[in-house]
Amino acid sequence: MIQHRLGVFNLSEKELRPQGTTRKEMVHGSVYKTANESWIPTTTRNRDDYPSLVVEIGVLESYERLKTDARIWLDASDKRTRIVLLVVLDLEKLEIRIERWERAMVQRRIVTRSVTARMGGPARCIQRIILTRVGPGNVTVTGAPLVLPLATIFDGDGIPPLSSDVDVDNELSFSAQMLEQMAIRYFAAF
C-alpha cells in the first residue's frame, strides 16, 4: 500500500528504499528489533542506517507489546526512526486499528537563554484510524485520512524534487475510501 502510494508521486526505491523485515540493533546494544516492513530514505542515509518508517503488525492480544515496540523504535534508534505504524487486528470484532506513532514535539524553555525550543518528546500515538467490518463488503472508517508526512520520513531536508502542487506535509495520505478498499480486501478472507 505504501509503496504503491509512493509511485503516485514518482518516488521510487531510488529515493525511499523498502527494507522489508530488517533487524536492527538498538543504540544501547542489548535490544534488537525486527520490523514487519520498513523504509529508509536513500537521499539522507546510508544502507545500514535505521529505517525512518517502520510498520509493526499484530493481533489485539499483543497490542501492549506493539506499543512497546513503537517506543523502542522511536526512542532507541538514536532518533533515526521517525514514524512507526502499528497495524492491530481484532479478529473478534473484525476491526483493524492503524496507529501512527512519532516522538511528540514539545515546547521547552531553555533557562540560560530564555528562548523556547522545540524538542523531541516521548514517543506517542499521533493518529488513530479504525476500520470496522459491518457486513460483507461494507466497512466503516473512523479517523481518516492516514497522513504520513514526507518531511518527517525524509529527515526534513532530504526530500527529492516534487511537483509544485504537492503539499510536503500531507502528500502521502490515504483517504477513507482507500483504507476502506484495503479493509474490504482483507475482510473478504473471513
Automatic annotation (TrEMBL):
Name of the protein: Uncharacterized protein
Question: Which source organism?
Answer: Aspergillus ibericus CBS 121593
- Phylogenetic lineage: Eukaryota, Fungi, Dikarya, Ascomycota, Pezizomycotina
